[in-house]
């Protein structure tokens, strides 16, 4: 063990041999290292890497260490500095603009899966994208070692919001970290040092305003963009099939300005005018033009008369000569809008490129922050050093020195954002190689020198003459001192000579003429004109004007001519005219201007961000609904510009379910919307959580559901009161239990209906199945699958309340639910045994649905049983299955040829061409387990409807119509069979409007009906059949075969158990001696 820890700094071979000097130096190094470990670390985060590098270089006076972070584009700079009255370790790093992004959650991000109007209320979350994860991890790593956090982002709205994103990431790691805000306007030593000495707190109001703007832009833009794109791509596939027709609440009013100017030019009608002009030529060099004081008149005859009058006596009297000082004002300090406008006009650099270059010059420290609304130099800003550093330039250095000698005289504007000074150079840059960078930097320098110098001075002379009482005026200019014009070549002020004229003198003009002219239309908008209109009407901010202009160019809504003026394209014209035809002011600046004003109030703390957000969402949603209702007007407007026939447009969200409301309920797991949607192959429906893939709660409806819609009514039984659903099933898919058109609930109040469909209520825990769709494609004989869903073909009898029946005979209670894809099978099968034997398939008949409880009043529990078709009789041949129809004849096996879902599927029908029965059976229907020992057919009657009137005495029987008050009609069964000649009640209306009421006339309702409204009821078919159920068991009283029933008799005595084979007491079928 070493006596001194500092010996570890020496190689092992030298740890014994060292002198005193080396020992002292080693101890000092070790002490400094230990002190550094105990030193407080301060994390500084800038908006860009260049800014972080320059800030660190200035604060450390060049004595900083650089190391790599997790992101190769964002370095880490370290140095020691005196802060908070102590020496601290400064760690400076950066982000790359916004660290977090906003987007919709789950399925709301899918264009085809959501009704666009839902995006106005859809949940939004902030997240860090994969591209910025390394930056985020760097912040998290450094936060763990830091006690304080200083935000060095740009001092504007966006910079403040980026700062709060950084704070959010850092406080997630260390909630108690101290947070400060550095406010600066230029990256110079004086500015950053002053910012570090006057640290403040971040402004939450400003950040909240940006959050409101981001959310509104996302919701509004996504809703309108998806709506326009999905529709117009289908309506005009040749022109717009591959285009994204975007909408933005700033870009659309910007497009509106361009279209409005273009239409003004198109609608302009020129008008001719006439004017008089007087010319006096003193000699070959001196010539004076006098302009008519009336300017011009639109009546040629009147001007002609005045001309003749002047020519009658052409003597001109000089009635007034006035000489006065004239000044041309130097420019105002430069703000962002003026920089964009002047760069576009004078330098021919568009606004987007201008701001890109300005940002680069700023981060390099050559100019101040380029995004400012201020045109007043603050009193505390020392301008002398800024002018002094420009004296070295050979082009404008001499003028800069003269300004210093004569004294600075900056011109002041009237605007100030209280955040940044006007744009100005911060240091001399004589080594710029990029042409546009050099031109823009030179412009900023010359503009700055011009605005701190003096106005140009001159003398102006104005002479007025009269000829026959008609007045004419001429003016001249003599420049005395050019001043700022010497350094500012972007403006002109030229001499206009005027000969010496004395008041009271007379002269004869050389000519008096009449000239013809015409009014001219306004010019198309230039980029500078467009930016001026955007600023005037509050569209966007000085930082976003260029982006909005570039967007409408990129979307081909407008183009730029060779002279730099904007011309609307066909798509832009059609969209604007379509919305204008609706009476919706989307192309006008009003809506966005109101939003910008509200955001300003949020920044000032005058309004709540949530209040502004709610108002704006409601306002734009109302506009969106109006636009959807009148969408044909957009089609009509665009058809004028496109040489293409309009196509019929399908629903803009084809897999979002039927048109109308698609929101079913809130997900019990994540509280997002459960929506009704179509499958991708457009063949079926499902309900799924919009939080997918994070939440996989879903209900997959079977293929037999041809159509389903969400009803306005809600279930009054389920605790969550979900809406009822209107189902349309495949023909006879769930007969005899449910009609093809069914109105029901899948919230869990009707378990038998849900079990028949093969679904279960939504889980309160998220489902994470890899393939939830597989639950809808299982075969008919599969039971519950691993996911917990019930197979679409599973029988009702799969629960503990299932009913078992035994015996030999024909049983007709089992009607298997349909399968999505029914495959034909041969008429004979070695896997099918006779009725008296067993089957390797699950052939247990389903238990019919329970009747509704007394307090269950909605339509989901209404049941309707049709007269069942008997299942075929099976022969005693163990190797064959013979299908026998109702005529006791072998049935005919046929194959479906008609195109449709059953194409290729085999079925049995009566073989008789005439006079046969209406027997029908699919060949792949599972063979039933016999439920009675009777050899004949067992049938049952449909139960009466809940509202059926079955009064005694003289009361008449009524059907279901008119609330159960419509008298029923008595008819007689004509069809050959066991019920031929039997009378029954039915609805008296025509067949196409009949209700589903049915009742046998001789049915007493109390004698052996076998239908009970108790829950979990099990049914047995055949009077002597054996039936067992958990809660209640009843035998239907019309069986024709013999058998035994293990039920209680009407006298209350329990019957002795009998064998199902020989009908003898004392043993069961399994131990029957008659069976070999």
List the helices and strands and how they pair.
Elements: H1 20-38, E1 41-46, H2 49-59, E2 65-67, E3 76-83, E4 86-94, E5 101-104, E6 124-127, H3 133-145, E7 148-152, H4 157-173, E8 178-181, H5 189-197, H6 204-235, H7 237-240, H8 251-266, E9 272-281, E10 287-292, H9 300-312, E11 316-328, H10 336-347, H11 351-363, H12 384-388, H13 397-406, H14 435-451, E12 456-467, E13 470-481, E14 506-507, E15 511-518, H15 527-537, H16 545-554, E16 558-560, E17 566-568, H17 570-582, H18 590-603, H19 609-629, H20 632-639, E18 663-666, E19 673-678, E20 685-689, E21 698-700, E22 705-714, E23 723-729, E24 741-744, H21 751-757, E25 892-895, E26 906-909, E27 920-922, H22 961-964, E28 969-972, E29 983-986, E30 998-1000, E31 1017-1020, E32 1032-1035
Parallel strand pairs: 1-4, 1-7, 7-8, 31-32
Antiparallel strand pairs: 2-3, 3-4, 5-6, 9-10, 9-15, 10-13, 11-12, 11-14, 12-13, 16-17, 18-19, 19-20, 20-21, 22-23, 23-24, 25-26, 26-27, 28-29, 29-30
Family: Belongs to the type IA topoisomerase family.
Catalytic activity: ATP-independent breakage of single-stranded DNA, followed by passage and rejoining
Organism: Daphnia sinensis
């Amino acid at each position: 063990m070493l006596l001194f820890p500092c010996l570890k700094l020496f190689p092992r071979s030298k740890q014994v041999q060292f002198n005193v000097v080396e020992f002292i130096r080693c101890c000092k190094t070790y002490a400094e290292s230990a002190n550094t470990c105990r030193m407080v670390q301060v994390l500084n985060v800038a908006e860009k890497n260049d800014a972080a590098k320059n800030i660190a270089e200035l604060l450390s006076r060049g004595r900083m260490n650089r190391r790599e972070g997790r992101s190769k584009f964002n370095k880490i700079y370290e140095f020691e500095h005196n802060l908070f009255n102590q020496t601290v370790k400064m760690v400076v790093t950066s982000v790359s603009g916004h660290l977090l992004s906003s987007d919709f959650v789950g399925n709301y991000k899918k264009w085809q899966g959501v009704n666009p109007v839902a995006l106005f209320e859809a949940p939004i979350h902030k997240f860090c994208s994969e591209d910025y994860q390394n930056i985020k991890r760097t912040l998290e790593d450094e936060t763990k070692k830091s006690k304080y956090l200083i935000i060095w982002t740009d001092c504007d709205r966006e910079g403040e919001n980026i700062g709060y994103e950084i704070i959010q990431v850092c406080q997630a790691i260390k909630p108690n970290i101290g947070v400060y805000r550095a406010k600066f306007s230029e990256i110079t030593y004086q500015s950053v040092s002053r910012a570090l000495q006057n640290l403040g707190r971040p402004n939450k109001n400003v950040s909240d305003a940006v959050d409101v703007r981001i959310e509104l832009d996302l919701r509004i833009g996504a809703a309108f963009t998806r709506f326009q794109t999905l529709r117009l791509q289908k309506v005009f596939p040749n022109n717009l099939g591959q285009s994204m027709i975007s909408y933005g609440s700033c870009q659309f009013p910007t497009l509106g300005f361009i279209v409005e100017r273009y239409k003004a030019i198109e609608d302009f009608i020129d008008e001719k005018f006439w004017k008089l002009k007087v010319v006096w030529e003193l000699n070959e060099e001196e010539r004076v033009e006098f302009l008519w004081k009336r300017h011009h008149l639109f009546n040629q005859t009147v001007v002609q008369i005045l001309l003749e009058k002047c020519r009658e006596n052409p003597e001109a009297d000089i009635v007034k000569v006035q000489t006065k000082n004239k000044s041309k004002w130097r420019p105002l300090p430069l703000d962002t809008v003026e920089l964009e406008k002047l760069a576009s006009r004078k330098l021919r650099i568009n606004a987007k490129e201008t701001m890109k270059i300005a940002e680069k010059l700023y981060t390099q420290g050559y100019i101040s922050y380029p995004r400012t609304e201020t045109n007043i130099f603050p009193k505390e800003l020392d301008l002398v050093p800024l002018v002094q550093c420009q004296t070295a330039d050979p082009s404008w250095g001499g003028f800069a020195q003269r300004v210093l000698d004569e004294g600075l005289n900056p011109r002041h504007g009237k605007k100030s954002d209280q955040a940044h000074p006007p744009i100005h150079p911060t240091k001399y840059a004589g080594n710029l190689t990029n042409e546009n960078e050099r031109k823009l930097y030179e412009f900023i320098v010359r503009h700055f020198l011009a605005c701190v110098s003096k106005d140009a001075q001159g003398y102006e002379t104005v002479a007025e003459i009269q000829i026959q009482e008609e007045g004419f005026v001429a003016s001249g200019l003599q420049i005395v001192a050019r001043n700022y014009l010497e350094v500012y070549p972007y403006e002109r002020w030229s001499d206009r000579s005027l000969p010496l004229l004395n008041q009271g003198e007379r002269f004869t003009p050389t000519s008096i003429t009449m000239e013809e002219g015409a009014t001219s239309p306004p010019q198309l908008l230039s980029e500078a004109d467009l930016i001026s209109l955007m600023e005037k009407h509050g569209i966007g901010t000085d930082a976003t004007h260029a982006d909005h202009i570039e967007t409408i160019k990129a979307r081909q809504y407008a183009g730029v001519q060779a002279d730099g003026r904007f011309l609307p394209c066909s798509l832009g014209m059609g969209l604007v005219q379509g919305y204008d035809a609706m009476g919706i002011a989307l192309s006008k600046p009003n809506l966005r201007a109101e939003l910008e004003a509200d955001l300003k109030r949020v920044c000032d703390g005058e309004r709540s961000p949530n209040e502004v957000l709610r108002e704006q969402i409601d306002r734009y949603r109302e506009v969106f609904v109006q636009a959807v209702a009148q969408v044909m007007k957009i089609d009509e407007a665009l058809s004028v510009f496109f040489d293409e026939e309009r196509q019929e447009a399908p629903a803009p969200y084809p897999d979002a379910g039927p048109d109308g409301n698609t929101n079913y309920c809130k997900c019990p797991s994540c509280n997002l919307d459960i929506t009704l949607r179509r499958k991708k192959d457009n063949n079926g429906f499902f309900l799924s959580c919009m939080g997918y893939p994070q939440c996989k709660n879903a209900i997959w409806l079977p293929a037999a559901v041809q159509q389903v819609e969400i009803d306005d009514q809600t279930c009054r039984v389920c605790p969550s009161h979900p809406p009822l659903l209107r189902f349309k099933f495949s023909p006879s898919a769930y007969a005899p239990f449910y009609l093809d058109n069914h109105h029901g609930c899948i919230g869990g109040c009707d378990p038998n209906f849900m079990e028949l469909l093969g679904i279960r209520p939504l889980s309160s825990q998220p489902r994470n199945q890899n393939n939830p769709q597989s639950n809808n494609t299982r075969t008919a004989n599969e039971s519950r699958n691993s996911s917990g869903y019930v197979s679409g073909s599973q029988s009702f009898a799969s629960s503990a309340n299932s009913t078992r029946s035994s015996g030999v005979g024909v049983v007709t209670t089992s009607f298997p639910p349909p399968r999505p894809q029914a495959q034909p099978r041969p008429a004979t099968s070695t896997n099918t045994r006779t009725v008296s034997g067993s089957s390797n398939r699950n052939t247990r008949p389903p238990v019919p649905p329970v009747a509704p409880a007394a307090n269950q009043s909605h339509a989901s529990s209404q049941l309707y049983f049709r007269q069942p078709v008997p299942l075929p009789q099976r022969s005693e041949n163990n190797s064959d299955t013979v299908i026998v129809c109702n005529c006791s004849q072998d049935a005919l096996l046929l194959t479906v040829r008609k195109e449709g879902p059953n194409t290729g599927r085999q079925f049995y029908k009566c073989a008789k061409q005439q006079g046969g029965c209406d027997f029908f059976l699919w060949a792949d229907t599972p063979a039933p387990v016999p439920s009675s020992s009777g050899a004949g057919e067992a049938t049952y009657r449909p139960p009466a409807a809940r509202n059926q009137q079955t009064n005694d005495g003289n009361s008449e029987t009524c059907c279901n119509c008119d609330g159960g008050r419509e008298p029923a009609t008595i008819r007689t069964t004509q069809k050959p069979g066991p019920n031929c000649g039997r009378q029954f009640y039915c609805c008296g209306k025509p067949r196409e409007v009949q209700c589903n009421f049915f009742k046998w006339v001789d049915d007493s309702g109390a004698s052996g009906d076998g239908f009970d409204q108790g829950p979990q009821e099990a049914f047995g078919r055949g009077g002597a059949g054996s039936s067992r159920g958990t809660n209640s068991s009843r035998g239907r009283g019309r069986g024709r075969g013999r058998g035994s029933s293990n039920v209680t008799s009407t006298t209350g005595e329990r019957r002795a158990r009998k064998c199902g084979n020989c009908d003898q007491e004392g043993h069961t079928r399994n131990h029957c001696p008659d069976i070999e």
